[in-house]
Amino acid sequence: MSIAPLAPISVFEEAQDKARAAAGAMLPLVAYTLHAQFPAAAVLVVKRSAYEEDYDELELDSIRAADGKIVWSFAVRGAEWLPAVPEDIAALWGSHDPRAPDSVLELLQRVENTAPYAFLSFLAPEAMHGGEENAERTLLGIPLAPSVCPLHGAKCPPQDRAEPPTPVD
């Protein structure tokens, strides 16, 4: 019996590693895109669904400044389009429109589905509002820009925020 048409497990493991690396590279894309749209913002806040049947589904919550002030609330604005982005950033989104909240959410969900609980971190306490630290599902935060911004230079406010995620090799 010949086993030539069978693939070793390593083929699958290598494909998973490549998928995780590609997924990890999407968080900086989201971070820089939202930073271009909201230069004064420091963090994108997302949460996991509170419903047991959708427990791993993500929801967009808000875009906040470093002090926790809400710059954009997805609960209030719903599917309202986000501001435009420079063409070079928009081109990185391919057929998806970075102004559409659904496109941002879909990309984040795909990242999360690739490696559940591997990429998203808890929201920093200083960016939380009263009672959020005790919520049933702890909020998650994605930092939006480095201290020296490639889009706006050193003048980019605010300067006291966390660094955005770096691509995974």
Percent helix? 25-40%
H-E order: HHEEEHHHEE
Overall pLDDT metric: 83
Q: Using only CA atoms, what is the Rg?
A: 18 Å
- In percent terms, what proportion of residues is strand? 5-15%
Largest sheet, order of strands side by side? 3-2-1-5-4
Protein described:
The protein is of the alpha+beta class and 169 residues long. It contains 5 helices and 5 strands. It has a 5-stranded antiparallel sheet. A hairpin with a 5-residue loop joins strand 2 and strand 3. Helix 1 runs antiparallel to helix 5. It starts with 8 loop residues before the first helix and ends in a 26-residue tail after the last strand.
In short:
This protein is of the alpha+beta class and about 170 residues long.
